C-alpha cells in the first residue's frame, strides 16, 4: 500500500496561446520535474464531468472525490456560501446575497449598492442574528456579493427570492413555494426587516450618506438551496482523507466530506501562494492520513485573467516546488497531477476541454511522454471521466478491493 | 458565441478496402480541405450509441441531437414511416407494410407481390382514406415496401400484426393486445377489407392480371409503434436549430424535433447530389438559426453498394464543396464533420466501428492530424459517445452553461 497525493492545479488545461507562440501554458512551461514524473508514469486526458460539460470547481471536485455531482450539487446558494468561508453544516439553507440600495419606499435603486468595495465586512458582521430558533449567518464576498445562511429546525429552500432581479421595482416579500417553506419564508421576511433597520443605522452607511454615496441598506437574496450531506470520505472509500486548499469553496467541500484540513497558514488562493509550503504540509499530513488533495488555485486565476504567460510561469513555480519537495518522495507515494477543469486564457472562463493528467508510482506502466501537456498525453494510457479518478488512485496505491474473485 | 455547422456524411466510417490498396475510403481520398480543418482542430472517434452497438441512421441522429434513442426510438414502424416522407405527427400509429399477393381464400401466396417494382405509387394513393374519425395515410417505399399510418383519437400500437410472416397461410385478423388497442384493431381490420376491394379493382392490378403477373392485392402490416413526441430542440438546447437533409428519415426526425428545414430544392439522397448547394444553404441558414445539421447521404449509398472507390470519390466531392463554401467561413463557425455510423463497403451494411470526427473553431486546440481518417484520429483529443456530441458542440461555440461555479 502506498499513500496518495492528488495535486489539482485549478483550471490547468488550456488552448494554444498567441503570447506563447501558439503553445499552451503547459506546452511552453519549463517543468523538468513534472515531465519526469509524467514520462515515468501513466498519462492521459480526463473529462471532469463528461465531454462537452463545462465544469465548475465545485462540481469537478465533488466528482473527483467520488461524489455524483448531479446528486450532491444543490445549487449556487450553498456552494457559493461554502466559498465564502462560512463553516456550513449539512441541512443549512444557503442563499446568494447582494448588498443593495433601496429608497424609502423599498424600491430597488441599485441591486449592487454601487458595487460597494469597502466596509462590507463590518456590515456583514452586524447581520448575524437569531430569529426564533434559527441562527442566521451572513458573510461578505467580493464587492456587493455575500452569502446568507440559515441553520435551524424545519427549514426548507422552497421559498421565493426577495431579489426582484431588476431595479426600480419594490423588494417583494418572500413567499413559501410549498407548505415546507412556510417557516423559512417567515424568518427571511423578519431578517429582511431587521437587516434594513440595522444597515440603516450602521456607521458604514452613515459615512456613505455623508459622502452622498449609494448606501448598502438592504439585502437581496436568491438561489436558495440546502447544503448537502456528503457521505463520509473515510466510510465511502475506506481510507483517511485530508486536504490542503486556500480556496474556501474547495476547502468547504472537503470539510463536508469529513476530510481533515492540513492547509498551512499563510498560503493564498492566488499566484503568490507558497506552493512549497503546501506540498511540505501534504507530505507531512500523509504520515497521518492515506490521501491528500492539494488544490493550487494560481493556474485558474491566471486563466481567468487571460494571462497565458502568467499561467506558464505559475506552472513553472509548481514544478520547482515539486522538485524541491516531492522528488525524494516519489518512490513511496502515488503522485497524481491534473486540473479540475480547463480555464483557457483565450476564453478567461472555464471550458469543457479535457484536462491532462499523470499518475506516477513506483512500478507503474510508463507512457514515455516527453513533455506533459494537453496534446502529448492524447495517446496516453488514460482516458478518464472524473468519476473514475478515485477508483484509479486507490487501485494504483493498492488500496482498492477486487470486484469479484 | 459562434454558430454551429454539423456535417454528417452518412455511413462515413469504413474498413480497409482491397480496391483502395488496403486503405479506407477516407484514408485514400484526396481531401485537402477536410485535412486542413482536422489538422487545425480537435479530432477523435465517436461511438454513435456505444461501442459494439450498430446504429441505424434514426437512432444515431436522435442521439446526436441529444435525444436518448433508448427512449425515443419507438420501433421500425414509425421510423420507416418517417423515412417514407409522410409528414408524421407525435401520437400517430405507424406500421411497416408490404404489398402482397393473396388468393381468393385470403391465403398469402407471395408476401412481396413478386417484389413489385412499378405502380405502387398509384396503388398507395388509392389507399388513403378515413375510417370512423381516423385518417389513414399510405405511402409506397422501395419495391413491395410501404408505410401505413393511422391518425386519430384513442389509437394504440397494442395490436397484433396481420402479417403472418410466412406464406401459404391465411391473413389473420388483427386482434387487440390490450383494452387500449381495441379501436385500432377494428380500424385496421376495416382498412384491410376495404383495401382488398380497392386493390382488386385497381387499374394497376387489372393490368397485372392480364399479364399473369402476381397482383399486389393485399396489404400486410407489422411492427406498429407510436410516433414519439420529441422535446422541442430550441427548448431543450436553448438555441434555434435547422436541418438540411434529402433523406426523409433524417428530415423527419429533425422535423419532429421542431427544427427548421433549409434543404434546398434539387438535392438528392445519393452520390449525384449537389453538396455545394447544401453547404451554401447551411451558411445562409446560419444567419437565421444557431445550429444546422447537414446530412449528406452519398457516402452511405456507396457503402451499401459495396463500392469503396465510389465512396472515396464522393468524399472528395464533399471536400471540394467544403473548399468552395466553407473555407472563408471557418473563423466564424464551429464546423464539425463526422458520420452517423460506419457503412464498410466490405460489409455493405452498417457496422459498430467508431466514426472519425473533427471539430474546428477559431482558437481550438490543434491535434495536428495530417490525414483525417479512422486510424489517424485514434490518438486525438476526443473519444466520444453520440450523446456527448451536442454538449460538446454547444460548449465549443460558447453556447453552453457551466455546471457549477
Structural class of chain A: alpha/beta
Distance between the termini of chain A: 20 Å
Major beta-sheet overview of chain A: 8 strands, mixed
Q: What is the CATH class name of the largest domain in chain A?
A: Alpha Beta
Q: Calculate the mean pLDDT score of chain A and round it.
A: 96
What oligomeric assembly is this protein in? homodimer
Most extensive chain interface and residues per partner: A-B, 37 and 29 residues
- Fraction of residues in β-strands of chain A: 15-25%
**What is the number of helices of chain A?**
14
What's the order of the H and E elements of chain A?
Answer: EHHEHHHEEHEEEHHEHEHEHEHHEEEH
Number of strands of chain A: 14
**Which term fits the overall shape of chain A?**
globular
C-alpha Rg of chain A (nearest Å)? 23 Å
Strand order of the largest sheet of chain A: 10-9-11-1-12-13-2-14
Word description of this protein:
- 2 copies of one chain form a homodimer.
- By secondary structure, the first copy, chain A, is an alpha/beta fold.
- The first copy, chain A, has 2 domains: 3-73 and 229-396, Alkaline Phosphatase, subunit A, CATH 3.40.720; 78-226, no CATH class.
- Chain A has 14 helices and 14 strands.
- Chain A has helices at residues 25-28, 32-39, 57-64, 69-72, 76-83, 120-125, 182-201, 203-210, 233-237, 248-256, 275-285, 298-304, 308-325, 389-396; strands spanning 3-9, 42-47, 93-102, 108-110, 129-131, 134-140, 145-151, 218-226, 241-245, 260-261, 291-296, 333-338, 355-360, 382-385.
- In chain A, strands 10-9-11-1-12-13-2-14 form an 8-stranded mixed β-sheet, with helices on both faces. In chain A, strands 3, 4, 5, 6, 7 and 8 form a 6-stranded antiparallel β-sheet that branches.
- In chain A, β5 and β6 (134-140) form a beta hairpin.
- The radius of gyration of chain A is 23 Å and the shape is globular.
- The model of chain A has no long low-confidence stretch (mean pLDDT 96).
- Chains A and B meet through α3 and α5 of A and β14 and α14 of B.
Amino acid at each position: 500500500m502506498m499513500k496518495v497525493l492528488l495535486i489539482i492545479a485549478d483550471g490547468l488545461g488550456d488552448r494554444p496561446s498567441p503570447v506563447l507562440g501558439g503553445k499552451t501554458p503547459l506546452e511552453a512551461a519549463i517543468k523538468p520535474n513534472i515531465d519526469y514524473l509524467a514520462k515515468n508514469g501513466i498519462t492521459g486526458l480526463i473529462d471532469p464531468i463528461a465531454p462537452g460539460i463545462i465544469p465548475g470547481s465545485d462540481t469537478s471536485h465533488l466528482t473527483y472525490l467520488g461524489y455524483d455531482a448531479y446528486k450532491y450539487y444543490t445549487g449556487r446558494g450553498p456552494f457559493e456560501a461554502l466559498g465564502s468561508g462560512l463553516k456550513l453544516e449539512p441541512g443549512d439553507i444557503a442563499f446568494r446575497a447582494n448588498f443593495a440600495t433601496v429608497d424609502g419606499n423599498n424600491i430597488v435603486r441599485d441591486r449592487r449598492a454601487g458595487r460597494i468595495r469597502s466596509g462590507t465586512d463590518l456590515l456583514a458582521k452586524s447581520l448575524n442574528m437569531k430569529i426564533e430558533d434559527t441562527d442566521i449567518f451572513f458573510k461578505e464576498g467580493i464587492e456587493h456579493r455575500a452569502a446568507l445562511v440559515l441553520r435551524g429546525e424545519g427549514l426548507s429552500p422552497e421559498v421565493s427570492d426577495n431579489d426582484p432581479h431588476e431595479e426600480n421595482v419594490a423588494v417583494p416579500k418572500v413567499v413559501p413555494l410549498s407548505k415546507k417553506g412556510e417557516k423559512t419564508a417567515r424568518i427571511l421576511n423578519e431578517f429582511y426587516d431587521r437587516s434594513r433597520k440595522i444597515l440603516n443605522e450602521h456607521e458604514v452607511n452613515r459615512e456613505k450618506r455623508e459622502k452622498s454615496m449609494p448606501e448598502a441598506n438592504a439585502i437581496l437574496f436568491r438561489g436558495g438551496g440546502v447544503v448537502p450531506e456528503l457521505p463520509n470520505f473515510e466510510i465511502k472509500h475506506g481510507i483517511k482523507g485530508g486536504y490542503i486548499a486556500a480556496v474556501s469553496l474547495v476547502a468547504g467541500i472537503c470539510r463536508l466530506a469529513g476530510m481533515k484540513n492540513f492547509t498551512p497558514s499563510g498560503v493564498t488562493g492566488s499566484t503568490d501562494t507558497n506552493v512549497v509550503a503546501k506540498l511540505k504540509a501534504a507530505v507531512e499530513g500523509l504520515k497521518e492520513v492515506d490521501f491528500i488533495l492539494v488544490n493550487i488555485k494560481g493556474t485558474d486565476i491566471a486563466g481567468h485573467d487571460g494571462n497565458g504567460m502568467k499561467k506558464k510561469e505559475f506552472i513553472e513555480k509548481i514544478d520547482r516546488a515539486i522538485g524541491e519537495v516531492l522528488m525524494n518522495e516519489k518512490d513511496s507515494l502515488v503522485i497524481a497531477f491534473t486540473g479540475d477543469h480547463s480555464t483557457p486564457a483565450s476564453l478567461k472562463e472555464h471550458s469543457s476541454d479535457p484536462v491532462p493528467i499523470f499518475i506516477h508510482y513506483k512500478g507503474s506502466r510508463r507512457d514515455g511522454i516527453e513533455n506533459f501537456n494537453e496534446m502529448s498525453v492524447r495517446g496516453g494510457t488514460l482516458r478518464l471521466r472524473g468519476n473514475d479518478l478515485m477508483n484509479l488512485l486507490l487501485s494504483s496505491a493498492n488500496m482498492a478491493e477486487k470486484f469479484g474473485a
